[in-house]
Automatic annotation (TrEMBL):
GO molecular function: calcium:proton antiporter activity
Its biological purpose: Has a role in promoting intracellular calcium ion sequestration via the exchange of calcium ions for hydrogen ions across the vacuolar membrane. Involved also in manganese ion homeostasis via its uptake into the vacuole.
Similarity remark: Belongs to the Ca(2+):cation antiporter (CaCA) (TC 2.A.19) family.
GO BP terms: intracellular calcium ion homeostasis
Protein name as annotated: Vacuolar calcium ion transporter
Cell location: Endomembrane system; Vacuole membrane
Length: 452
């Protein structure tokens, strides 16, 4: 009995109270659950976990129709224009003006779906990569339009050149101006603040990109002004070399943002999320599954591609028969419709006091247009033997550089208000009026037949 009592009173070793290998065996790790109580799927960010798998038609339609904000939801009421625009193209191909109008309107809800699906997909990945992914998907509409336009030949080159600069102007002046205006007009705040990591890197890149874009135009116009002609081939070669360099710059920028300085951007964006008073409501909303995000993107891209083809086919009629200038079509009409979804997203973020997110979308979209989309269309034109160069009109080039300088000066102090936003929008209206009256060149530069 003494031996039994002695064995009974022996205390266990301290290490026996710790579960074995809990820090090294992954299968002992407790499952993660997000704010809605959904088990988080491996590889999915908790904010983007839907709690479902596969595709559920009713949930899919309901969530897509709800969209990201009230304005985006109202845009979805335009979806009946999509089948109507496609049907009219085949039923009455002679109604050129109506085909253009219907397809122009139909592009907005289709682009909005790309933006929403991209945002839902971006929630499922880390913050910084999500912003890059969402911005890239938002640029798909622009890439599709550029590719369809360049496939039409050299006659589309003036419209593409105007659309490149028009896209950047719409982002920097109209969209950013609306962000400043909508975010600053709320009575509960006087100014909105943003981090220098977002604003300074973005504006610095835009200055460099703007210079790169206009150098071929400066080269050509300087020689023409000196009475020298016949340098179209050299301008084309400079444009193609510039396109390759700009693509390399985009790669460096992406590596900088997602790899070497990822932690800075992630910290800034996570802090920005905490400023959103409605964040708890946004997190509580039902979300698309990964499969549903892909399905939504496929549907939206199919619609956008069809609509873009039908829209581009009517541009010659609008320019020649309705006497709307190439400058107005490219600088104003095309960018407004292709950037509608991105603009709605950015303005909604500014309203929620998430100015770093809004700036990341606005400046990111502008940088992608300058460093990715523009080089792509130049290189594709090169492959198709078309003279797609960067010999912009002097009017377009000067307006672009001035817009970048104006926006850079507003972003320098790290604050914004509704006055700065109003001024940006007013400047954009002045540019739009000037573009409306800008005449078409008799012999557009770069439209000299097939290039080498």
């Amino acid at each position: 009995m003494a031996r039994a009592s002695q064995e009974y009173t022996v205390e266990p070793k301290p290490e026996s109270t710790v579960p074995p290998d809990i820090s090294t065996k992954k299968h002992n790790t407790l499952p993660r659950f997000n704010h809605n109580g959904h088990k988080v799927t491996k590889g999915i960010h908790p904010d983007g976990e839907s709690g479902r798998m596969g595709i559920h038609p009713w949930h899919f339609v309901r969530i897509c129709f709800r969209s990201t904000s009230r304005v985006s939801k109202f845009v979805n009421f335009l979806w009946p224009f999509v089948p109507a625009a496609i049907a009219l193209h085949f039923a009455r191909p002679d109604l050129h003006l109506w085909i253009f109008i219907l397809n122009y309107i139909a592009m907005v809800p289709a682009a909005n779906l790309i933006g929403f699906a991209g945002q839902e997909l971006a929630r499922k990945v880390p913050k910084v990569f999500g912003i890059v992914l969402e911005t890239t998907l938002g640029s798909v509409v622009e890439i599709v339009l550029f590719m369809i336009l360049i496939s039409k030949g050299n006659q589309s080159v003036p419209v593409i050149r105007a659309a490149i600069l028009g896209s950047i102007l719409a982002n920097l002046l109209l969209c950013l101006g609306l962000c400043f205006l909508v975010g600053g007009i709320r009575p509960d705040r006087e100014d909105q603040e943003f981090h220098e990591a977002i604003s300074e890197v973005g504006t610095g890149l835009m200055l460099v990109a703007g210079m790169g874009l206009v150098v071929p135009a400066v080269f050509s116009n300087a020689l023409n002004g000196a009475g020298q002609t016949g340098f179209e081939a050299e301008t084309l070669k400079i444009s193609r070399g510039t396109a390759i360099i700009l693509l390399f710059a985009f790669g460096v920028y992406t590596f900088f943002q997602t790899k070497t300085h990822h932690s800075i951007y992630a910290e800034v964006l996570e802090a920005d999320e905490e400023k959103d008073a409605d964040r708890h409501k946004d997190l509580a909303k039902d979300k698309l599954t990964l499969t549903e995000c892909i399905v939504a993107l496929v549907i939206a891209l199919a619609c956008v591609s069809l609509i873009a083809v039908f829209l581009v086919e009517q541009i010659p009629f609008i320019v020649e028969e309705k006497h709307v200038s190439d400058a107005f079509v490219g600088l104003i009409l095309v960018p407004l419709v292709e950037k509608a979804a991105e603009h709605l997203t950015a303005v909604d973020e500014a309203w929620d006091n998430q100015m770093n997110f809004a700036l990341a979308h606005v400046l990111g979209a502008s940088i992608q247009t300058a460093l990715l989309n523009t080089p792509l269309v130049v290189i594709v034109g090169w492959g198709l033997k078309y003279d797609m160069d960067l010999n912009f009109e002097i009017f377009d080039s000067v307006v672009l550089i001035l817009a970048i300088i104006v926006v850079s000066s507003f972003l320098r102090d790290g604050k914004s208000n509704y006055l700065e936003g109003t001024l940006c929008v007013l400047v954009y209206i002045i540019v739009a009026i000037s573009a409306f009256y800008y005449p078409n060149p008799k012999e557009p530069a770069g439209n000299t037949g097939e290039g080498g």
